Amino acid sequence: MFDIGGALCWVMNGDELCPVPKFSREIAGFVLEVYFFLNDQEAYDPLDPNGNITIKWDIISWTPDGYVAVVTMNNYQKYRHISTPGWSLGWTWAKKEVIWSMVGGQTTEQGDCSRFKGNIPHCCKKNPIVVDLLPGTPYNQQIANCCKGGVLSSWAQDQSKAVAAFQISVGSAGTTNKTVKLPQSFTLKAPGPGYTCSPAKIVKPTQFIQPDKRRVTQALMTWNVTCTYSQFLAQRTPTCCVSLSSFYNDTVVPCSTCACGCQGNSSLTGDCVNPDSPHLASVVSNSGHDKSSITPLVRCTRHMCPIRVHWHVKLNYKEYWRVKVTVTNFNYRMNYSDWNLVIQHPNFENLTQLFSFNYQSITPYGSINDTAMLWGVKFYNDFLMQAGSLGNVQSELLFRKDKSTFTFDKGWAFPRRVYFNGDVCVMPPPDAYPWLPNAGSRQEVPLLVLMMTSLVALVLLHAYA
């Protein structure tokens, strides 16, 4: 909590919104930027503090020159998933290991295997990169939890689809627990940068329950790698913004100007297309040829964000109030499948009904139920189309009023924090929020101004006395 112009503001945890005088907006913005910058650098998410992707490497048998291992990736992040074109996992071998064969995955390059005669390894690179196989892969090349095209669901949406695995046969390696050397410098792209991985650490061997559930076996050796996400590493500019409106005020608060970058700065924001341009169709069709590109091709706007989330306070009843939430895709290069939205608002504890979205409560602060995860209904609106007339999804939320806390004053009806696909969205400045009609002309007078005015009045009074 800090004091700007005489108004106490809980800025760092978003527990309360307060009007910030216009002359202090730059200071507040600077503090917020520093705060979120530090959070991003440390890969710490206040709404999912324990979220990570854990990579487990289980050696299940020895071979004459190495071992066979099953590598499993578990996405323990509540609301951050991995979408198309999927994850890629890399590392650096400690010695001169090679990959003889793989099941459920493949390396992107074979490398130089000229030193081998006859039987050629699957990969001879010092730093291999592994990707998942595609759906429809022949059964003799599959193992459990493989072959999803690298797509991983978030833990809250579908735990059964939040796991990936592949089997690897490693040669020119140790053949005992004491001679095996752990791989180094793990990297995870999903599909772009953003994850930082810890060094491999030997842990207690994994135990496996047999199908008949009457026998338990265990890995010969197990090590873990933990990868955590940083939005700053993934992209130096935000990927979404929030706009606001209400039934009690004609003002529509748009996304902040240059919220996700400015036009003309293609190195950060990607290219921009005017929707009225006669060349729009050709530009969009040509951009689709590079399926691996994650650089957005967005509609030219003031905010230049690929995604906009609009929160509209729609209706006020005696015992309830209603909100409409709309997610709009401005990115011509991306169809967002299995998207999700995380919203923090103090009234989610009293959410009564939700239309056309799935809902799950997230409680990052123990028993405080003020954070909700929303996502589309399967085969209905879980697929957010690229920019255009169909590039939006929307729903309405009905809240019951708690008379001890409910108010429309001072921006209480608007969210404190919004995430789209795990990335925090840029909120408008608090002093721009729609005010109640009887408070629209109210001006906050800083305490320092009042003190100076009183001091001048006393000096003049003394002079004329």
UniProtKB/TrEMBL annotation:
The keyword Lipid biosynthesis does not apply. Its main location: membrane. One of its GO terms (cellular component) is plasma membrane. Residues 239-434 form the COBRA C-terminal domain. The keyword Lipoprotein applies. GO terms for biological process: cellulose microfibril organization; plant-type cell wall cellulose biosynthetic process. It is found in: Cell membrane. InterPro entries: COB_C, COBRA_pln. PANTHER family: COBRA-LIKE PROTEIN, PROTEIN COBRA. Belongs to the COBRA family. This is COBRA-like protein.
